[in-house]
Amino acid sequence: METRITELFGIKHPIICGGMYWLGRAELVAAVANAGGLGFIVGATFDDPKDLRAEIRKARDMTDGPIGLNINLFPSVRPMPVEEWVQIAVEEKIPVVETSGRSPEAIVAPLHAGGVKIMHKVPGVRYARTTERVGCDAVCVVGFECGGHPGMDEVTTLVMIPAAVDAVSIPVVAGGGFADGRGLVAALALGAEAVLMGTRFMATRECRGHPAWKEFLVNASEMDTVYAMRSINNPSRIVKNAVAEKILEMEARGATLEEMLPVIASRRSVVYDDGDLDGGIADAGQVMGLIHDVPTVKELIDRIVEEAVGIRERLDSIIPERLAL
After folding, report:
1. Beta-carbon-side half-sphere exposure of residue 190 (alpha carbons within 13 Å)
2. What is the CATH number of the domain that holds 34?
3. DSSP label at 148?
4. What is the pLDDT of residues 119-133, one digit of tens each?
5. Residue 94 shares a structural domain with residue 131
6. Does residue 316 sit within a domain?
7. What is the pTM of this model?
8. Long-range contacts of 167-171 (CB under 8 A, 24+ apart)
9. Distance (Å, rounded) from C-alpha 160 to C-alpha 243?
């Protein structure tokens, strides 16, 4: 499967593991690279630049494949200045940076000067146009079903991706709702040049996470997330648990941001690392309903590719090369 994304990022398969706060660590990212994909270590996870550099180098010791860095441009999630992340990306010879949150315009030039390619992640077509205008190399467009921050526009991936493909000329990566070979083929059919998965990679052996958290992902359905925090202009798709229900209740009675902050600030690590499923916020997408096991990353990616090839063969058998009209 050769696409503009596989060529641009130097990967074998058009499969990307998006940056996941707290979970995007060396073991997962290296496993994705070894399996032919691309993953991102998340800068915001680390408070000290030395720790981030150490994590990048740890991943490098585990793979010869490309290692990406996620730079979140939201001011509230920056444990260090954006300029420091840019410097680390350049000095550590990171080939691809994934940005999100706000426009990356201010850091495009210094990253490109350092030989770093940029994929900006957005929740809408108008933002995809801006991404192209400011000079990014690729854009990841996520639909309403994605975990984390799907944006204010309640538009599904099925509509969002072809609309974005029609709107820009740079390669489009499809995010939100992808977990298997069916999704990969669908994304390619919609005009995307790769898929980005987050939630599905959470349920892999190399991903950091308590067994209780991974068991929850396997047993959950597509109905076990909520779309919360829209009232404070920070919409998030998170797991339906006690904290999520509290947030929804506060929003329903018109609570202010200041009132909600103590609840919103609950630590994700309590869920991910400790397995306390009601102890904090946990990001996850509706694709949870398609997760049924916890394979290795290589097993997952190999399976996705094999499924995609099988679907291609099935489609070839039912769609004639030329229709008689």
Report:
1. 24
2. 3.20.20.70
3. B
4. 999 999 999 999 999
5. yes
6. no
7. 0.95
8. 167/125, 167/128, 167/129, 168/128, 168/129, 168/131, 168/132, 168/139, 169/132, 170/131, 170/132, 170/136, 170/137, 170/138, 170/139, 171/3, 171/4, 171/5, 171/8, 171/137, 171/138, 171/139
9. 30
